[in-house]
Amino acid sequence: MTRTKAMAWVGGASYLLMVGLLVWGAPEAPGTVHAAGSLLAVSLLAGMVRRMPLSALAMTLIGSTAVVAGPPSAAQESLAASYQGQFLSYLAVDLVLGFVVATRARRASIVAVAVSFTVQLLLIGGFAHGDDLTVNGVIALLAIAASCMAGLLTRERREHAAALRSQEVAEAVTAERLRIARELHDMVAHSIGIIAIQAGVGSRVIQTQPAEAGEALRTIEAASRQTLSSLRRTLVALRQADGGAIGPERSPLAPSPGLSNVGQLAAATADAGVRVDVRRSGEQRPLPADVDLAAYRIVQEALTNVVRHADTGRCRVAIDFGDEELSVEVVDDGCGATGNGSAARPAQGFGIVGMRERVGLLGGHLSAGPRPEGGFRVAARLPLPEPAGSAVEAR
Questions:
Q1: What angle do CA 344, 348, 349 make, to 5 degrees?
Q2: Alpha-carbon distance 260 to 271, whole Å?
Q3: Banded pLDDT at 123 (limits 50, 70, 90)
Protein backbone atom coordinates (compact mmCIF):
# COMPACT_ATOMS: atom_id res chain seq x y z
CA MET A 1 0.00 0.00 0.00
CA THR A 2 2.86 2.38 0.85
CA ARG A 3 4.59 1.59 -2.43
CA THR A 4 1.50 2.34 -4.52
CA LYS A 5 0.94 5.62 -2.68
CA ALA A 6 4.58 6.57 -3.24
CA MET A 7 4.25 5.78 -6.94
CA ALA A 8 1.13 7.96 -7.10
CA TRP A 9 3.03 10.90 -5.59
CA VAL A 10 5.89 10.33 -8.01
CA GLY A 11 3.38 10.55 -10.85
CA GLY A 12 2.04 13.80 -9.43
CA ALA A 13 5.51 15.31 -9.18
CA SER A 14 6.27 14.17 -12.72
CA TYR A 15 3.09 15.87 -13.93
CA LEU A 16 4.07 19.20 -12.39
CA LEU A 17 7.59 18.85 -13.80
CA MET A 18 6.28 18.20 -17.32
CA VAL A 19 3.91 21.17 -17.11
CA GLY A 20 6.77 23.38 -15.98
CA LEU A 21 8.92 22.25 -18.87
CA LEU A 22 6.07 22.93 -21.32
CA VAL A 23 5.34 26.43 -20.04
CA TRP A 24 8.78 27.81 -19.22
CA GLY A 25 10.94 25.50 -21.32
CA ALA A 26 9.20 26.39 -24.60
CA PRO A 27 7.60 29.83 -24.13
CA GLU A 28 7.54 30.54 -27.89
CA ALA A 29 5.21 27.56 -28.60
CA PRO A 30 1.53 28.37 -29.29
CA GLY A 31 -0.84 28.28 -26.36
CA THR A 32 -2.78 25.42 -27.94
CA VAL A 33 0.39 23.32 -27.88
CA HIS A 34 0.85 24.05 -24.18
CA ALA A 35 -2.75 23.03 -23.50
CA ALA A 36 -2.45 19.82 -25.52
CA GLY A 37 0.81 18.94 -23.73
CA SER A 38 -0.78 19.46 -20.31
CA LEU A 39 -3.70 17.24 -21.31
CA LEU A 40 -1.28 14.47 -22.28
CA ALA A 41 0.73 14.97 -19.10
CA VAL A 42 -2.35 14.36 -16.95
CA SER A 43 -1.96 10.63 -17.74
CA LEU A 44 0.90 10.69 -15.21
CA LEU A 45 -1.72 11.29 -12.53
CA ALA A 46 -3.57 8.00 -13.18
CA GLY A 47 -2.38 6.40 -9.94
CA MET A 48 -3.13 9.50 -7.89
CA VAL A 49 -6.59 9.90 -9.44
CA ARG A 50 -7.53 6.38 -8.38
CA ARG A 51 -6.20 6.65 -4.81
CA MET A 52 -6.23 10.38 -4.02
CA PRO A 53 -8.60 12.09 -6.44
CA LEU A 54 -8.82 15.32 -4.42
CA SER A 55 -5.04 15.69 -4.42
CA ALA A 56 -4.98 14.93 -8.14
CA LEU A 57 -7.61 17.63 -8.69
CA ALA A 58 -5.50 20.15 -6.81
CA MET A 59 -2.46 19.29 -8.95
CA THR A 60 -4.38 19.61 -12.22
CA LEU A 61 -5.69 22.99 -11.08
CA ILE A 62 -2.12 24.11 -10.37
CA GLY A 63 -0.83 22.73 -13.68
CA SER A 64 -3.65 24.17 -15.79
CA THR A 65 -3.40 27.54 -14.06
CA ALA A 66 0.32 27.58 -14.77
CA VAL A 67 -0.38 26.93 -18.46
CA VAL A 68 -2.89 29.81 -18.59
CA ALA A 69 -0.98 32.31 -16.45
CA GLY A 70 2.51 31.39 -17.69
CA PRO A 71 4.43 33.46 -20.25
CA PRO A 72 2.34 33.60 -23.46
CA SER A 73 3.87 33.05 -26.88
CA ALA A 74 5.29 36.16 -28.52
CA ALA A 75 4.65 34.64 -31.92
CA GLN A 76 0.88 34.99 -31.59
CA GLU A 77 -0.93 37.93 -33.18
CA SER A 78 -2.48 38.88 -29.86
CA LEU A 79 -2.37 37.85 -26.22
CA ALA A 80 -6.08 37.00 -26.31
CA ALA A 81 -5.55 34.45 -29.07
CA SER A 82 -2.74 32.85 -27.10
CA TYR A 83 -4.79 32.57 -23.90
CA GLN A 84 -7.82 31.33 -25.78
CA GLY A 85 -5.92 28.18 -26.75
CA GLN A 86 -4.37 27.77 -23.30
CA PHE A 87 -7.80 27.63 -21.63
CA LEU A 88 -8.17 24.13 -23.12
CA SER A 89 -5.80 22.89 -20.42
CA TYR A 90 -8.71 23.08 -17.95
CA LEU A 91 -10.23 20.07 -19.69
CA ALA A 92 -7.78 18.01 -17.61
CA VAL A 93 -9.33 19.55 -14.47
CA ASP A 94 -12.79 18.64 -15.71
CA LEU A 95 -11.76 15.01 -16.31
CA VAL A 96 -10.46 14.64 -12.77
CA LEU A 97 -13.48 16.52 -11.44
CA GLY A 98 -15.82 13.95 -13.02
CA PHE A 99 -13.93 11.16 -11.23
CA VAL A 100 -14.21 13.05 -7.93
CA VAL A 101 -17.98 13.43 -8.36
CA ALA A 102 -18.29 9.73 -9.18
CA THR A 103 -16.27 8.41 -6.23
CA ARG A 104 -16.19 10.91 -3.38
CA ALA A 105 -18.85 11.91 -0.86
CA ARG A 106 -21.41 14.45 -1.98
CA ARG A 107 -20.10 17.22 0.28
CA ALA A 108 -16.54 16.77 -0.98
CA SER A 109 -17.82 16.71 -4.56
CA ILE A 110 -19.73 19.97 -4.10
CA VAL A 111 -16.66 21.68 -2.63
CA ALA A 112 -14.48 20.37 -5.47
CA VAL A 113 -16.91 21.64 -8.11
CA ALA A 114 -17.15 25.04 -6.45
CA VAL A 115 -13.38 25.47 -6.16
CA SER A 116 -12.77 24.31 -9.74
CA PHE A 117 -15.42 26.60 -11.18
CA THR A 118 -14.19 29.58 -9.13
CA VAL A 119 -10.56 29.11 -10.21
CA GLN A 120 -11.49 28.74 -13.87
CA LEU A 121 -13.84 31.74 -13.75
CA LEU A 122 -11.19 33.95 -12.15
CA LEU A 123 -8.52 32.94 -14.66
CA ILE A 124 -10.85 33.37 -17.64
CA GLY A 125 -11.98 36.75 -16.31
CA GLY A 126 -8.39 37.85 -15.81
CA PHE A 127 -6.91 36.75 -19.12
CA ALA A 128 -9.78 36.72 -21.63
CA HIS A 129 -11.04 39.94 -23.25
CA GLY A 130 -14.18 41.10 -25.02
CA ASP A 131 -16.25 38.41 -26.67
CA ASP A 132 -13.65 35.79 -25.73
CA LEU A 133 -14.56 36.29 -22.07
CA THR A 134 -18.17 35.26 -22.65
CA VAL A 135 -17.31 32.40 -25.02
CA ASN A 136 -14.63 30.91 -22.77
CA GLY A 137 -16.82 31.34 -19.69
CA VAL A 138 -19.73 29.50 -21.31
CA ILE A 139 -17.40 26.75 -22.58
CA ALA A 140 -15.89 26.32 -19.12
CA LEU A 141 -19.35 26.15 -17.53
CA LEU A 142 -20.56 23.57 -20.06
CA ALA A 143 -17.40 21.46 -19.63
CA ILE A 144 -17.82 21.43 -15.84
CA ALA A 145 -21.52 20.55 -16.18
CA ALA A 146 -20.72 17.70 -18.58
CA SER A 147 -18.03 16.26 -16.28
CA CYS A 148 -20.39 16.47 -13.27
CA MET A 149 -23.20 14.75 -15.17
CA ALA A 150 -20.85 11.98 -16.29
CA GLY A 151 -19.67 11.56 -12.70
CA LEU A 152 -23.22 11.47 -11.34
CA LEU A 153 -24.30 8.89 -13.92
CA THR A 154 -21.27 6.75 -13.06
CA ARG A 155 -22.07 7.04 -9.34
CA GLU A 156 -25.71 6.05 -9.87
CA ARG A 157 -24.70 3.12 -12.03
CA ARG A 158 -22.23 1.91 -9.41
CA GLU A 159 -24.76 2.30 -6.60
CA HIS A 160 -27.37 0.47 -8.65
CA ALA A 161 -24.92 -2.38 -9.33
CA ALA A 162 -24.11 -2.56 -5.59
CA ALA A 163 -27.83 -2.67 -4.77
CA LEU A 164 -28.34 -5.48 -7.28
CA ARG A 165 -25.46 -7.44 -5.77
CA SER A 166 -26.90 -6.98 -2.29
CA GLN A 167 -30.30 -8.12 -3.53
CA GLU A 168 -28.76 -11.19 -5.19
CA VAL A 169 -26.93 -12.06 -1.98
CA ALA A 170 -30.13 -11.65 0.05
CA GLU A 171 -32.08 -13.81 -2.39
CA ALA A 172 -29.36 -16.47 -2.33
CA VAL A 173 -29.41 -16.49 1.48
CA THR A 174 -33.21 -16.77 1.49
CA ALA A 175 -33.15 -19.59 -1.06
CA GLU A 176 -30.55 -21.45 0.99
CA ARG A 177 -32.58 -21.00 4.16
CA LEU A 178 -35.67 -22.37 2.41
CA ARG A 179 -33.66 -25.30 1.07
CA ILE A 180 -32.34 -26.11 4.54
CA ALA A 181 -35.83 -25.72 6.02
CA ARG A 182 -37.26 -28.14 3.44
CA GLU A 183 -34.49 -30.63 4.03
CA LEU A 184 -34.84 -30.54 7.81
CA HIS A 185 -38.62 -30.76 7.59
CA ASP A 186 -38.56 -33.73 5.24
CA MET A 187 -35.82 -35.37 7.25
CA VAL A 188 -37.34 -34.99 10.70
CA ALA A 189 -41.11 -35.10 10.13
CA HIS A 190 -41.20 -38.70 8.92
CA SER A 191 -39.07 -40.06 11.76
CA ILE A 192 -40.82 -38.03 14.45
CA GLY A 193 -44.20 -39.20 13.19
CA ILE A 194 -43.10 -42.83 13.42
CA ILE A 195 -41.59 -42.24 16.86
CA ALA A 196 -44.78 -40.62 18.13
CA ILE A 197 -46.97 -43.47 16.88
CA GLN A 198 -44.69 -46.19 18.21
CA ALA A 199 -44.39 -44.44 21.56
CA GLY A 200 -48.18 -44.38 21.82
CA VAL A 201 -48.40 -48.07 20.93
CA GLY A 202 -45.69 -48.97 23.43
CA SER A 203 -47.32 -47.04 26.26
CA ARG A 204 -50.63 -48.80 25.70
CA VAL A 205 -49.32 -52.37 25.56
CA ILE A 206 -46.30 -52.22 27.85
CA GLN A 207 -48.24 -53.90 30.66
CA THR A 208 -50.22 -56.45 28.65
CA GLN A 209 -47.93 -57.20 25.67
CA PRO A 210 -44.28 -56.64 26.65
CA ALA A 211 -42.98 -58.18 23.41
CA GLU A 212 -44.93 -55.75 21.22
CA ALA A 213 -43.85 -52.87 23.45
CA GLY A 214 -40.23 -53.94 23.03
CA GLU A 215 -40.66 -54.02 19.25
CA ALA A 216 -42.07 -50.48 19.37
CA LEU A 217 -39.06 -49.32 21.39
CA ARG A 218 -36.68 -50.91 18.90
CA THR A 219 -38.46 -49.09 16.07
CA ILE A 220 -38.17 -45.85 18.02
CA GLU A 221 -34.45 -46.45 18.53
CA ALA A 222 -33.85 -47.17 14.84
CA ALA A 223 -35.80 -44.10 13.71
CA SER A 224 -34.00 -41.92 16.23
CA ARG A 225 -30.57 -43.13 15.13
CA GLN A 226 -31.45 -42.60 11.48
CA THR A 227 -32.68 -39.06 12.18
CA LEU A 228 -29.57 -38.20 14.18
CA SER A 229 -27.38 -39.51 11.39
CA SER A 230 -29.22 -37.44 8.82
CA LEU A 231 -29.03 -34.31 10.97
CA ARG A 232 -25.32 -34.82 11.52
CA ARG A 233 -24.77 -35.24 7.77
CA THR A 234 -26.61 -31.98 7.10
CA LEU A 235 -24.70 -30.06 9.77
CA VAL A 236 -21.36 -31.40 8.56
CA ALA A 237 -22.22 -30.36 5.00
CA LEU A 238 -23.17 -26.86 6.17
CA ARG A 239 -19.93 -26.45 8.13
CA GLN A 240 -17.75 -27.81 5.37
CA ALA A 241 -19.36 -25.47 2.84
CA ASP A 242 -17.23 -22.68 4.38
CA GLY A 243 -14.08 -24.79 4.41
CA GLY A 244 -14.34 -25.54 8.10
CA ALA A 245 -14.36 -28.89 9.87
CA ILE A 246 -16.28 -30.14 12.84
CA GLY A 247 -13.33 -31.74 14.53
CA PRO A 248 -9.65 -32.47 14.02
CA GLU A 249 -10.59 -34.73 11.12
CA ARG A 250 -13.47 -34.41 8.72
CA SER A 251 -15.83 -37.31 8.77
CA PRO A 252 -16.80 -38.71 5.40
CA LEU A 253 -20.34 -37.75 4.45
CA ALA A 254 -22.87 -40.45 3.80
CA PRO A 255 -24.52 -40.23 0.40
CA SER A 256 -27.83 -38.38 0.17
CA PRO A 257 -30.88 -40.64 0.09
CA GLY A 258 -32.60 -41.47 -3.16
CA LEU A 259 -35.18 -43.75 -4.70
CA SER A 260 -32.95 -46.73 -3.94
CA ASN A 261 -33.79 -46.12 -0.26
CA VAL A 262 -37.56 -46.25 -0.77
CA GLY A 263 -37.55 -49.87 0.38
CA GLN A 264 -36.09 -48.92 3.75
CA LEU A 265 -38.60 -46.09 3.95
CA ALA A 266 -41.43 -48.51 3.28
CA ALA A 267 -40.15 -50.87 5.97
CA ALA A 268 -40.00 -48.05 8.52
CA THR A 269 -43.52 -46.98 7.54
CA ALA A 270 -44.73 -50.56 7.93
CA ASP A 271 -43.30 -50.58 11.46
CA ALA A 272 -45.50 -47.56 12.11
CA GLY A 273 -48.57 -49.56 11.10
CA VAL A 274 -48.99 -48.63 7.43
CA ARG A 275 -48.07 -51.27 4.85
CA VAL A 276 -46.57 -49.75 1.70
CA ASP A 277 -46.90 -51.39 -1.70
CA VAL A 278 -44.00 -50.12 -3.85
CA ARG A 279 -44.36 -50.55 -7.62
CA ARG A 280 -41.67 -49.59 -10.11
CA SER A 281 -42.05 -49.39 -13.87
CA GLY A 282 -39.97 -48.28 -16.81
CA GLU A 283 -36.26 -48.66 -17.35
CA GLN A 284 -34.62 -48.09 -13.98
CA ARG A 285 -31.39 -46.13 -14.35
CA PRO A 286 -29.22 -43.71 -12.39
CA LEU A 287 -30.86 -40.32 -11.94
CA PRO A 288 -29.39 -36.85 -11.44
CA ALA A 289 -28.70 -36.31 -7.75
CA ASP A 290 -31.17 -33.43 -7.37
CA VAL A 291 -33.99 -35.34 -9.07
CA ASP A 292 -33.25 -38.50 -7.08
CA LEU A 293 -33.25 -36.63 -3.76
CA ALA A 294 -36.40 -34.65 -4.60
CA ALA A 295 -38.30 -37.80 -5.57
CA TYR A 296 -37.25 -39.52 -2.35
CA ARG A 297 -38.28 -36.55 -0.22
CA ILE A 298 -41.67 -36.38 -1.93
CA VAL A 299 -42.31 -40.04 -1.19
CA GLN A 300 -41.07 -39.56 2.37
CA GLU A 301 -43.31 -36.58 3.05
CA ALA A 302 -46.34 -38.24 1.46
CA LEU A 303 -45.83 -41.38 3.59
CA THR A 304 -45.42 -39.20 6.68
CA ASN A 305 -48.80 -37.60 5.96
CA VAL A 306 -50.37 -41.04 5.46
CA VAL A 307 -49.03 -42.24 8.82
CA ARG A 308 -50.08 -39.10 10.66
CA HIS A 309 -53.38 -38.19 9.03
CA ALA A 310 -54.84 -40.82 6.72
CA ASP A 311 -56.02 -43.29 9.38
CA THR A 312 -55.43 -46.26 7.09
CA GLY A 313 -53.37 -49.39 7.20
CA ARG A 314 -52.02 -49.40 3.65
CA CYS A 315 -50.98 -47.20 0.76
CA ARG A 316 -49.34 -47.50 -2.65
CA VAL A 317 -46.20 -45.92 -4.05
CA ALA A 318 -45.76 -45.97 -7.84
CA ILE A 319 -42.48 -44.93 -9.47
CA ASP A 320 -42.33 -44.73 -13.25
CA PHE A 321 -39.02 -44.16 -15.06
CA GLY A 322 -40.16 -42.55 -18.30
CA ASP A 323 -38.03 -41.50 -21.22
CA GLU A 324 -38.45 -37.79 -20.54
CA GLU A 325 -39.73 -37.58 -16.98
CA LEU A 326 -39.87 -39.40 -13.67
CA SER A 327 -43.34 -39.92 -12.21
CA VAL A 328 -43.90 -40.52 -8.52
CA GLU A 329 -47.34 -41.24 -7.05
CA VAL A 330 -48.42 -41.97 -3.49
CA VAL A 331 -52.06 -43.02 -3.04
CA ASP A 332 -53.96 -44.07 0.07
CA ASP A 333 -57.57 -44.97 0.79
CA GLY A 334 -57.80 -43.14 4.09
CA CYS A 335 -59.79 -40.08 5.17
CA GLY A 336 -58.67 -37.85 2.31
CA ALA A 337 -58.45 -34.10 2.97
CA THR A 338 -59.34 -34.31 6.63
CA GLY A 339 -55.76 -33.93 7.71
CA ASN A 340 -53.51 -34.71 4.81
CA GLY A 341 -52.08 -31.23 4.30
CA SER A 342 -54.59 -30.22 1.65
CA ALA A 343 -56.24 -26.86 1.15
CA ALA A 344 -58.69 -27.70 3.92
CA ARG A 345 -55.96 -27.10 6.48
CA PRO A 346 -53.25 -25.02 4.76
CA ALA A 347 -51.79 -23.63 7.95
CA GLN A 348 -51.16 -26.97 9.67
CA GLY A 349 -47.74 -27.62 8.15
CA PHE A 350 -45.31 -27.12 5.33
CA GLY A 351 -45.27 -30.58 3.77
CA ILE A 352 -47.19 -29.86 0.57
CA VAL A 353 -45.55 -26.43 0.30
CA GLY A 354 -42.10 -27.99 0.55
CA MET A 355 -42.97 -30.60 -2.09
CA ARG A 356 -44.22 -27.91 -4.47
CA GLU A 357 -41.02 -25.92 -3.97
CA ARG A 358 -38.83 -28.95 -4.70
CA VAL A 359 -40.77 -29.82 -7.84
CA GLY A 360 -40.89 -26.19 -8.98
CA LEU A 361 -37.10 -25.83 -8.70
CA LEU A 362 -36.70 -28.78 -11.05
CA GLY A 363 -39.29 -27.50 -13.53
CA GLY A 364 -41.76 -30.28 -12.75
CA HIS A 365 -45.41 -30.48 -11.72
CA LEU A 366 -47.04 -31.58 -8.47
CA SER A 367 -50.67 -32.37 -7.75
CA ALA A 368 -51.91 -33.19 -4.27
CA GLY A 369 -55.49 -33.56 -3.12
CA PRO A 370 -58.31 -35.92 -2.13
CA ARG A 371 -59.51 -38.55 -4.57
CA PRO A 372 -63.17 -38.73 -5.62
CA GLU A 373 -63.36 -42.36 -4.54
CA GLY A 374 -61.78 -41.57 -1.16
CA GLY A 375 -58.30 -41.20 0.15
CA PHE A 376 -55.55 -38.86 -0.86
CA ARG A 377 -53.21 -38.73 -3.85
CA VAL A 378 -49.83 -37.05 -4.30
CA ALA A 379 -48.38 -37.16 -7.81
CA ALA A 380 -45.20 -35.52 -9.05
CA ARG A 381 -43.66 -35.37 -12.53
CA LEU A 382 -39.99 -34.45 -12.69
CA PRO A 383 -38.35 -33.83 -16.08
CA LEU A 384 -35.25 -35.88 -16.84
CA PRO A 385 -32.27 -34.79 -18.95
CA GLU A 386 -31.81 -36.49 -22.28
CA PRO A 387 -29.58 -39.57 -21.96
CA ALA A 388 -26.13 -39.17 -23.47
CA GLY A 389 -26.62 -42.24 -25.61
CA SER A 390 -29.71 -40.80 -27.27
CA ALA A 391 -27.85 -37.62 -28.16
CA VAL A 392 -25.08 -39.61 -29.78
CA GLU A 393 -27.47 -41.74 -31.80
CA ALA A 394 -29.33 -38.64 -33.03
CA ARG A 395 -26.24 -37.28 -34.75
A1: 115
A2: 19
A3: confident
Domain final residue, candidates 98, 131, 164:
164
pLDDT (tens digit per residue) in 88-121: 778 888 888 888 888 888 888 889 888 888 888 8
**Bridge partners (DSSP) listed for residue 316:** 277, 331
- Bridge-partner residues for 383, per DSSP? 325
User: Quick one: CA dihedral 47, 51, 53, 58, positive or negative?
Assistant: negative
Q: Residue 337 CA to chain centroid, in angstroms?
A: 39
Q: Is residue 316 a part of any domain in this protein?
A: yes
Question: Mean pLDDT, to the nearest integer, of 31-38?
Answer: 71
**Packing angle between helix 262-271 and helix 289-305, nearest 10 degrees?**
10
Sheet holding 365-370, edge to edge: 275-282, 314-321, 325-332, 376-383, 365-370
Find the domain containing 289 and state its range: 274-395
Does residue 223 sit within a domain? no
The predicted-structure confidence for 340-352, as pLDDT tens digits, reads as follows 443 343 444 567 8
User: Are residue 159 and residue 279 in the same domain, yes or no?
Assistant: no
In a domain, 339, yes or no: yes
CATH number for the domain that contains residue 345: 3.30.565.10
pTM beyond 0.70, yes or no: no
Contacts with 240 (C-beta within 8 Å, 6 or more apart), sequence order = 250, 253
Q: What share of the chain is helix, strand, coil (3-state, %, to 5)?
A: 70, 10, 20
Instruction: Give the Cα separation of 55 and 61 in Å (integer).
Output: 10
User: Which amino acid type is present at position 20?
Assistant: G
Query: Of 117, 135, 164, at which residue does a domain stop?
Result: 164
Domains contained in the chain, number: 2
Rounded (5°) CA angle 265-351-281:
45
- Does 137 reside within a domain? yes
* Whether residues 155 and 283 fall in one domain: no
